[in-house]
Fold:
Amino acid sequence: MIDIKLLRTELEETSVKLERRSYQLDKKGLSALEARRKEVQVRTQELQSRRNASAKEIGKAKAAEEDTASLMAAVANFGDELKQAEAELDDIQEQLSDVLLGIPNLAHESVPHGQDENDNVEVRRWGEAPAFDFEPKDHTDLGVELGLLDFETGAKLAGSRFVTMTGQLVRLHRALTQFMIDLHVQEHGYTEIYVPYMVNSDTLRGTGQLPKFEKDLFGVKGEQDFYLIPTAEVPVTNVVRGEIVEAESLPRKYVCHTPCFRSEAGSHGKDTRGMLRQHQFEKVELVHIVRPQDSYDALEELTSSAEKILQKLGLHYRTVVLCTGDMGFAAAKTYDIEVWLPGQQRYREISSCSNCEDFQARRMQARWRNPETGKPELVHTLNGSALAVGRTLIAVMENCQDAAGRIHIPKVLQPYMGGAKIIGD
Structure:
């Protein structure tokens, strides 16, 4: 969440910045709540001081063997008043916390202003779209005709937005996952980490999914309250929740492969065909925990790591910086990497790489000890897909198809496929 000091000392400026993100701050209501907080806090502190002073007087009177009845009666009279003031202060603080938890992060000054994805700004492209001398098929037709994708069975087992894969296509999916992890560990210096696929509400609150996006989550029924993770970003970033890490342990660079589960509550009617928007999918996620002064260099590094996967696969893509109206709730700046899909004749997001600055760290109370001051300060957190495995599979299928409907396996994946070069022979 954003620093409450901004709302107390820079309310107008902060309100204008939030308007760039299409968020209307209730300045009047917030000012009234903050004024009431100050009033009640001052009153509470006065009553606490009186209580402490009275306790000393009672102690002195008892030591002098004097009658303390009148002093005790006075303490009892304002004791109830103090309890009421403390309860009201707690209620106000909770209301302020609820307001803060619903406010998005402030956009970095370099983020372009805009309303939606049409206002995003392309920053670079890599490679060229393949030229076919036939009408390219989309991944759905390719997979079904090869007998390796089955949406009907997925629907029978679970419902819509599920699929089953068999044979060499499953192996290709697994090969992509292993290739991504190996590249990030061996070439980019990431530490692989394994995390739970179910988390508690504190973990989701730490990265910003709760309370605002509960409808997008799958809850787990049982004796304990759990949620299935929507992305590995959630548990991996929360590894440092409530901790003070030493400067020499930074930066921390984690790579993590997990399934991801999303209800897609706001996407009814979107991408209902094929595997583009599933309730269950897999990602290889990158998470950086860094010193504040290093976070924007880390964003470029993280994005470059994700792009390298597509370059080694030979897949044409473009990278765009998201405008203020299209960024995620917790992000201060985001790059989307969009791969070219011949079956759709358009670019589709395959990775989002975001710098959240101290937004998540403040919610998690994740800090580092600054050696220059010796004091704890909030870390900066970053995350990005590198890559969404299912969407990468789609991209390989569509870009590497031939006129016979076969899929040619990229050279870098062939060692993971037992030397196989083509699916569909």
